[in-house]
Specification:
single chain, alpha+beta, outer membrane lipoprotein receptor (LolB), chain A, 13-stranded antiparallel β-sheet, 5 helices
Length: 269
């Protein structure tokens, strides 16, 4: 049997196997392949992460802010039911030598605060709820923290082309009916985009939240992480982070994720 014949037979077998898959089977397989592409067990057991780079904010396609930033993330070792399974500190750096922290946003399982030289100002409840919902519906958070929850459904929607790349599109749904649609690169198996809809409490309608992932780089211990993350809401760009470095499992300490004992707690506005 010639090499070309063997290749044709292998392709035919692959097509036959894929044809035998249900959309649910194919969707689950693509999610599992993404886990392996992101680092497999190393990704699933990642304890913390540090992303360093530049953060841009936008309003109506115009840049409204640019900051040097470090984002520290640590996952809970003993998660509490109904609580976030991570803590995050968004540290904004000054341009002065040594780049000391000028301010920070701290998010925990119990609340969120803006930390400045004046003290710790609690964010309003809606700001925290927005962060909590965005985190819980992040595909990376789902893979790392929620994949063992009962009731997940996977549904492969279609194969397509996105940004000149062949892709697979999968809709995943949790037990509460919350949906996230994820676009995977056919070759690398890595997620390129996620989309979900969320209720806008002010206008009583829905916002479409889109996050794009690009420029994956090794982050240590076999984990891959995107160094370009961009978010859009209803078609308008609202946020972008371009990381110079991403590192995982740095043994981050408690002091990063707690309000300093001597810092004044300001009244919530």
């Amino acid at each position: 049997m010639t090499k070309s014949v063997r290749i044709l037979l292998a392709c035919a077998a692959l097509v036959s196997l894929q044809a035998a898959e249900t959309p649910a089977d194919r969707g689950k397989r693509l999610v599992n392949e993404a886990v392996q592409a992101l680092g497999g067990d190393a990704f699933l057991h990642m304890q913390d992460r540090v992303e360093s780079g530049r953060v841009f904010t936008f309003y109506r396609a115009e840049i409204t802010g640019l900051s040097l930033a470090k984002i520290y993330t640590r996952y809970a070792s003993a998660p509490a039911p109904g609580k976030l399974m991570l803590r995050e500190r968004e540290s904004f750096l000054s341009e002065s030598p040594g780049r000391p922290e000028s301010s920070a946003a701290l998010f925990t399982e119990d609340g969120a605060w803006n930390l400045t030289y004046r003290g710790a100002l609690p964010f309003d409840d809606q700001r925290y709820q927005d962060f909590k919902e965005a985190t819980e519906r992040s595909f990376f958070y789902i893979l790392r923290c929620r994949l063992n929850e009962p009731g997940w459904d996977y549904y492969w929607q279609t194969s397509d082309v996105f940004e000149n790349r062949p892709v697979e599109i999968v809709e995943i749904t949790d037990a509460a009916g919350q949906k996230v649609t994820v676009t995977f690169d056919q070759d690398s198996k890595l997620p390129m985009r996620q989309v979900y809809r969320r209720r806008n409490t002010q206008f009583k309608d829905f916002d479409t939240e889109v996050t794009m992932f690009a420029n994956y780089r090794p982050a240590g211990h076999g984990v891959m992480w995107p160094t370009n993350i961009r978010r859009e809401r209803n078609g308008d760009k609202i946020f972008e982070m371009i990381s110079d470095t991403v590192e995982v499992d740095k043994n981050l300490t408690d002091d990063l994720f707690n309000i300093p004992v001597k810092m004044k707690i300001l009244p919530k506005k």
